[in-house]
Please model this.
Amino acid sequence: MSAAGIVVAGLRKRYGAVLALDGMSFSVRPGVVTGFVGPNGAGKSTTMRVILGLDAVDEGTALINGKPYRGLRRPLNHVGSLLDAAALHPGRTGRAHLLWLARSQGLAARRVDHVIELVGLASVARRRAGGYSLGMRQRLGIAAALLGDPSVVMLDEPFNGMDPDGIVWMRGFLRSLAAQGRAVLVSSHLMSEMQDTAGHLVVAGRGRAIADAAVADLIAAASGDRVAVRTPAVPHARSVLTYAGATVASTRENDGITVSGLPADRIVTLLGRSGVPFSEVSAHRATLEDAYLELTREAVEFRAVTPTEVSR
Ligand SMILES: Nc1ncnc2c1ncn2[C@@H]1O[C@H](COP(=O)(O)OP(=O)(O)OP(=O)(O)O)[C@@H](O)[C@H]1O
Model:
């Protein structure tokens, strides 16, 4: 396997009584946005801090481009990260903040204006960062992460505080970073953003990766093979489809059935060929949120009791 990107293997970390990481393992490949999701307390931020060498682990390894963070020569040319967008000097302008970072980290100052352009902050770069909105701080944090032109980018909750225009920009921006061949790890609680942005998803739960798969595969698995059919001739449709090997279930509507075992296009062909009228044949498509809720049902640290549980 190629060493490029991030590889974490068997991370274990205990804070007193809390086992924050319990065998966390996954890899983040170049060229793909990998979403890092999971309930509160699942261990996402701890994992990111461990990858950056900010936290020590009890067991396991975290490698960036094949080396632990501390073993990287010029680490900021390998990995750029944004863990906390609030961490900046409020009295400095955005540009001065980046210049200060570049100088103190030994990075080329000529990159500063380039990254300001990249994140769309040119018009406000000479304003004090203390007056920036959270969305602008996120952009400034991402500019800082890109100063060293790293091949690995790691962002904790970058959609936080972004307005709708900012969210659209962020989705495209993350995808473009991956398209340039970078390995991109992005944590988020927003499944709709992950569905549109990430190609791959690592789902954390109770300190380990409980799923590690392509977003398309997770959605396909949660969608099942159910197809909804609406027809005024339910008995006829039922016999045609059952004969072809499908399993047919009734729905609450008189003119509806749910079919499994046959793809939607085959159902359309079979019904058409047999002269069965129908007004709708649609494959059920789950959202990433459906898939996520199913996967994490057992791993949620704090869960509200439902009204039926209260009344018991
Ligand atoms: N410095 C610390 N001291 C004590 N416990 C900690 C510390 N950092 C994290 N933890 C605990 O470790 C567990 C994992 O926390 P972590 O912040 O990594 O989760 P997370 O997945 O990032 O959560 P969130 O989605 O809320 O950001 C939690 O139970 C948390 O309370």
